[in-house]
Automatic annotation (TrEMBL):
Xref: Pfam families: LGT
The organism's place on the tree of life at top rank: Bacteria
Organism of provenance: Sporomusa silvacetica DSM 10669
Keyword Signal annotated: no
The protein's name: Phosphatidylglycerol--prolipoprotein diacylglyceryl transferase
Subcellular location: Cell membrane
InterPro entries for the chain: Lgt
Length: 265
């Protein structure tokens, strides 16, 4: 891993920012491909990618600041905008990005659930997978010590090394990125079934939240909140519960999705 790729004068080009930007661009590209393949709304994807990407960055940063690192940032308020230092919570990014997407689809009279199924769910999760590469390069979202001679030893310039030194740590961010790719494939497969509208996006939320809940037991970058669980785990449990209810509800009440209607624009 390497935090700084190169310098332009005294200005550092950080791997974190470059890969994070790449994750948004490639997620938008994936969304465009899926929408073009389906035959609907592809002309809106570049715009919605920009709006949701920016909203996602803001949401991810604020979620991390207030739910994970407020003990630090309450004394360093001016550092809250310093996203290049790391500290982005995916759950907050998805939440605010989803809100931006809902607003956009309502303004442009786009079927929100259908758009989320066709475009959002598969594209978002592949963006998350790429984003975890940024975490690895930056040395954040790291695991706690493995207790053995196996694991990742981070460079001295990273937050992980500042917290645990030369102790080998669980590769939590790597495993999450790999699981995200598996979820991406599962969502593509599920899209080929005779599912109800909205179920693809809801399934994304359930699968990711389930994976995140268990991976949090390996994370070592912040402590527990209540009941021996971390904030991300409590959020994941809430999303899983609500997601299961919505998945069943949509299955009984929503329109069934077959082959895409090429005439719908």
């Amino acid at each position: 891993m390497h935090q700084y790729l190169f310098f332009i004068g005294d200005f550092p080009i950080r791997a974190y920012g470059l890969i994070l930007s790449l994750s948004i661009i490639l997620a938008t590209g994936t969304a465009y491909f899926l929408a073009k393949q389906d035959g609907r709304w592809h002309q809106h994807v570049p715009d919605i990618g920009i709006y949701c990407g920016l909203a996602g960055i803001v949401g991810a940063r604020l979620w991390d600041v207030f739910f994970f690192d407020w003990e630090y940032y309450q004394h360093h308020l001016l550092e809250i905008p310093f996203v290049w230092q790391g500290g982005m919570a995916i759950q907050g990014g998805v939440l605010l990005g989803a809100i931006a997407g809902i607003i956009y689809t309502k303004i442009h009279k786009i079927d929100t659930w259908a758009f989320a199924d066709i475009v959002a769910a598969p594209a978002v999760i592949i963006g998350q997978a790429i984003g975890r590469m940024a975490n690895l390069m930056n040395g954040d979202a790291f695991g706690h010590p493995t207790g053995g001679n196996f694991g990742i030893i981070y460079p001295s310039t990273t937050l992980a090394h500042q917290v645990y030194g030369d102790k080998p740590l669980w590769p939590a961010e790597i495993w999450e990125g790999q699981i995200d790719i598996i979820i991406f494939v599962l969502l593509l497969i599920f899209r080929t079934t005779n599912h109800a509208k909205g179920q693809v996006f809801i399934l994304y939320a359930i699968l990711y939240s389930t994976a995140r809940f268990f991976l949090e037991f390996l994370r070592g970058d912040y402590g527990t909140l209540m009941f021996g669980l971390k904030s991300a785990q409590l959020t994941s449990l809430a999303v899983i519960l609500i997601g299961l209810i919505l998945f069943i509800w949509q299955g009984y009440h929503a329109e069934r999705i077959g082959l895409p209607d090429k005439k719908s624009k």
